[in-house]
Amino acid sequence: MMHKNLKSAGLELRIPEDIEPGEICQKETGLSISWANDGHESFYTWDWLHARTKSSQFSEKLEYWMSNIAENPPKIEYQSVMNSDEGVKEWTSFVRKWGFCYVDGCPVTEKATQELLERIAFIRHTHYGGFWQFTSDLAMKDSAYTQLALSAHTDTTYFTDPVGLHSFHLLSHTDGGGGASLLVDGFAVAEALRSESPEAFDALCRIKVRWHASGNEGVNIMPDRSFPVLTLEESRPGEEEKVSQIRWNNDDRAAIQADDPREVAEFYAAAKKWVEILRRPASQYWQQLEPGRFL
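The structure corresponding to this sequence follows.
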């Protein structure tokens, strides 16, 4: 039973174990069921039923990409996002489909940047803060606060629940050069690994890794358990398991712990192949961000 205002289930789990439909009637807008046990009638719209099949949970098909995404990257105008929920829907659909999206025309201020972020949801706080501005001044003992080049990685691997969306807006870039941003489609790389080296793919799905953040005084963060580099989602019998999550940041990786010493060598061999694909020019999309272009 669904509460019409709260939109939440109020069922007390008193359904008889031998429950069965007495009459089923297909209608234009949905399915009507009269239950044999007590004559109770239920009606389910086709849209409601379709939305609850596993294959349609995320109906938006993911698009894997390579470096040629530079020719036509996903983008949307700032005013479109700020002026309508349809704009937010289009923006988040692009992020879901491609993994990233630019918002062009954002005012070059912290306030406007934060307001844009909050069009999606609240900002999650971490040990760095929630919304913050930074530069290469080593204010935090993190490689992001240096002028060192950063290789392709995912952030917050050391959280049990890593940050889902991460955003950047370059507010100023007047003195000096460099600083181009690197984007890689990790899911495309994972599929390339699966195709080229199934044993390496299996190792990164199977061997669990300890991740940690401990560079700053008073900070020592680790997940509640170890996680593999590649996490697979559940699949139906006969279907190929799809990668649902990637954790990869070699700077945050702790020493490998394995009951079988052979797994250590297996992991490093697989990680070497993984990094080789990550570093291929065809896998890497480089873009110099500019003030007003929000990523």
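The beta strands are 21-26, 30-35, 41-45, 75-77, 102-104, 181-184, 230-232, 243-246, 284-287, 293-294.
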